[in-house]
Amino acid sequence: MRIPCPHRRFTGAPCGGAVQPTGYCDTCGRDEAGPGLPPLPAAPEEHGPAGLLELPLLEPGSPAERLSAAERPVRIVMTCSAKACQVAFVPPYTATSPPEEGHCPRCGAPYSYRPELTKGGPPLQDQYRIRGPIAHGGQGWVYLAEDTHLEDLVAVKGLLNRYAERGAAQAGEERRSLVAIRHERIVQIRDFVSTRNTDGTVSGGYIVMEDVGDRTLSAVVESTRQGDFVLDIEHVITYGCQILEALAHLHGMDFLYGDMKPSNVIHHGDGVKVIDLGGVRKAGSTDPPPVITPWFAAPETNGGKPLTVAHDLHTVGVTLAELAGWAVGDDVPGLGISSFRLVVTRATARDPEQRFGSAQDMAGQLRGVLREIRALRGKRDQPEPSEYFTPSTELLGLRLGSVPDYAHWLHRPLYGRRETPRSPALDSGLPTPTEIARRLPVPRPYPGDPQAARFGVSSYDPGQPLAQPAHGEQSVEICLHNARLLLGQEDDEALDAAREQVEAAAAIPGPGPVREWRLSWHRGLVALRGADVLDERGAMLEEALKQFSAVHRALPGEYAAKLALAYGAEQLGADGTAPAGRSAYELFRAVHARNPSHVGAALGLARLALARGDRAAAIEVLDLVPDESRDHTVARIAAFRVRAGRLAAGERPLPEEADIDACLALLTPAPGAHPLLVAGDEPAWLLRTELYEWKLDMVLAAAGGPRRPGRWARMGLPPPAVPGERAVRVELEQCYRWLARQRQSPAEYERLIDLSHAVRPQTRS
User: Fold this and answer.
1) Three-class SS state of 758
2) Is the dihedral of CA 43, 44, 48, 50 positive or negative?
3) pTM of this structure
4) C-alpha distances in Å from residue 267, one per residue of 27, 257, 272, 575, 607
5) Total domain count for the chain?
6) 10 Å Cβ neighbour count for 747?
7) What CA–CA distance (Å, rounded) separates 59 from 52?
8) Partner of 49 for a Cys bridge, out of 53, 54, 373, 393, CB 3.0 to 4.6 A?
9) Which alpha helices (DSSP H) does 181-280 contain, by range?
10) What's the sign of the alpha-carbon dihedral 666, 668, 670, 671?
11) Which of 376, 397, 430 finishes a domain?
12) pLDDT score at 519
């Protein structure tokens, strides 16, 4: 009999392994009866921090703990001090572990990997009393010291091998970097203490920094592994955002960090501090050679090439991937975790041109993903405006939330005198591909475009075509602007012209990462329009989804691409499977959870619910739209019609009589009261007519459906009315007659009067 493991994974899901006869799990290795990882909250909204971009307050270890935990002996590969030699002390040069101090077996140069400063020695510069070494990196010892002037603790960094020629240059580079850099996410230098040779020349020195504790992200992972801390995916993303803040500051000063990894970031208080700036280099510099860690370094980087922004972002991506493997996140439904993985995938792309263009760009996408994850967990944060898209002013799927117009009745077929017409099912408002192409959000112009300024002046008219400049660089943004205008035209030739504009934009030389997604977006719009114009509807929809998937991969934190994918997937059928493997439901849900005021996403979820006959789910999502939403009235009318309407699918397409009566009451407010749903008599009469049609269907269905005339017709009499039928027919006849009186056209008047004749109650005398 298989005994399931009672423990969970670090990521939150059940272990899934089986307990062996030894009592230990065959997957996680834990003792069945032993303590497991800390339990997680039952409610998803209780996972992770309460606030956006929050980190828990972590206290550093005590000075005694940090001093006792210092690694001795040194656990690195020792190398020769001489820059010209640099031999590693491994076989064949040494047969056993080399001593901490001695001479190079190859060239005889002295070396010493012992801490140069010890407790009880003279204070540095008569100010810093050394307590002892607390850590070492690849280049230097870090000592804990007391500032006797300010009476607080500081960290003092010196060379790991005090004879190292390259190490002295490295320390000098770090000192120059630290002196110039001031940022809340970067460890701050407080002083520099020079050391001198016997002849008075400067031999080196020590950097005095603020003491930021010992909670490196590597230590956080170790605490998580031991069950002393619960690392959450929200923590990981917040780490990434704060690290990128520090890197953005460095990049803005023309510095590159080079060696980002978990051990070079401290969780200090409720934020992070980037430490170990010995690898910081000026952009384009190769002397001293960059300091990198192979596992984290970008594939194009080696010791002889200068660092790049793309390399730094690659190291951040690998760091986040390492941390995420220990973080709780399996509880996040829908797209949340996959959106995070897309950020990491782009940051670590093998081709540096495919990575994010800047630390700010990557941080922006991480913030968007964090908001999405928190929203899918049920948390509520203020929406953040997109830096890449302008929201559309036209709503997709509006028909569901609109009052039906007269065409709803005028285009119906005529019915016989004794034939009870069946009302049409509620129109879910599924937008056409052309409507989608014209009403999706619009990408903001790329600021680096040579004609970008033309789109920001008050004289810019988005409805007028723009001409390329007669001289100078051609503009990609002008081509894309003109393509959008052409997609708004009805003739087939305009579609070809729009496609030509997009391809003309692609032919203009320019930076790849910032414009590739813009080109993909507009190719997707062209394909959507082609789905309505050309005969290859399915192929065009697939092409549109392919292009929007490329945008989604480039901008995982934006919801515009998710909207486009959702609408396209919905067009392809009931299952709505997009090329990215995600359903229209998951895509709409990701947008709606993050911004409940987005009525387009709410209408999309409602349509999907109606397609499967789930009236309650459609009403629930529409009722979540807050009152302050610009399109709140649309959502209210949509929920109103869904509550009382005949559905096109499901086992119970007709509503309950009580629901219809409650909706009818909303259309008849008390005398002097403010209208509860719509203002004015005409919208109320149009909705009332629709509701009484559905109520007549419901009354007849409750009695077994419309009755055949049978023997009553042979006697010249109508069939007897079922309970409630006559009253409904009277009301519906009045509705049709009221609508008829509003029409100026005789033909329209007569058509509505014909409808009234078809439903009016017939006498039996």
Assistant:
1) helix
2) negative
3) 0.89
4) 31, 18, 5, 45, 46
5) 2
6) 8
7) 21
8) 54
9) 217-225, 233-252
10) positive
11) 376
12) 96
Give the mean pLDDT of 591-613: 95
Which are the contacts of 541, defined by CB distance < 8 A and separation ≥ 6?
Answer: 433, 527, 528, 531, 568, 571, 572
**CA-to-CA distance for 343 and 586, rounded, in angstroms?**
18
Alpha helices (H) in 645-762, listed in sequence order = 657-666, 681-702, 710-714, 725-741, 746-759
Buried b (16+ CB within 10 A) or exposed e, 3-18: eebebbbbbbeebebe
**Both structure tokens of 586:** 């998951």
Contact indicator for 763, 729 with CB cutoff of 8 Å: no
Q: Do residues 204 and 222 both lie within one domain?
A: no
Mean per-residue pLDDT over the chain, rounded:
88
Looking up residue 272, the CATH number of its domain turns out to be 1.10.510.10
User: Are 196 and 242 in a shared domain?
Assistant: no
CA dihedral 346, 351, 354, 358 (to 10 degrees): 80
**Residue that has been written with the tokens 């439903």 in this structure:** 759
Using the structure block, give the residue that is written with the tokens 């760009």. Answer: 361
Enter the DSSP assignment of 449.
Answer: S
Distance CA 155, CA 191 (A): 10
Total residue length of the chain: 765
Domain assignment of residue 281, given as a range: 217-376
Q: How many CA atoms lie within 13 A of 559 on its CB side?
A: 30
pLDDT in tens, 17-53: 999 999 999 999 999 998 889 999 999 899 999 999 9
Decide: helix, strand or coil at residue 143. Answer: strand
Pair (144, 238) in one structural domain: no
Rounded to an integer, the average pLDDT of 76-91 is: 77
77 occurs within a structural domain:
yes
Tell me, yes or no, whether 222 lies in a domain: yes
For 245, residues 6+ apart whose C-beta sits below 8 A from its C-beta are: 183, 185, 359, 363
CB 246 within 8 A of CB 271: no
User: What SS3 state is found at 155?
Assistant: strand
Give Cα 175 to chain centroid, integer Å: 38
Share in percent of the chain as helix, strand, coil (round to 5): 40, 10, 45
Residue 588 vs residues 335, 376, 432, 523, 596: alpha-carbon distances, Å: 10, 12, 17, 22, 11
Tokens 């605490």, residue? 223
Two tokens, residue 522: 């507009």
Distance of CA 149 to the CA centre of its chain: 48
Dist CA 510 CA 498 (whole Å) = 20
Give 594-612 as a 3 state SS string.
HCCCCHHHHHHHHHHHHHC
Tokens of residue 242, six digits: 């704060």
| Residue at 405: amino acid letter | D
- Which of 420, 419, 421, 439 is CA-nearest to residue 429? 439
Specify the DSSP class assigned to residue 276: -
Same domain, 112 and 182: yes
pLDDT, tens digit (0-9, with 9 covering 90-100), for 433-455: 999 999 999 999 998 899 988 88
Here the tokens at position 224 are 């998580």
On whether residue 517 sits in a domain, the answer given is no
By C-alpha distance, which of 181, 553, 552, 115 is closest to 347? Answer: 553
230 shares its domain with 206: no
Both tokens of 41, joined, read 């909250």
End residue of a domain, out of 329, 358, 376: 376
Collapse the DSSP code of 268 into the 3-class scheme (helix H, G, I; strand E, B; otherwise coil) and give the result: strand
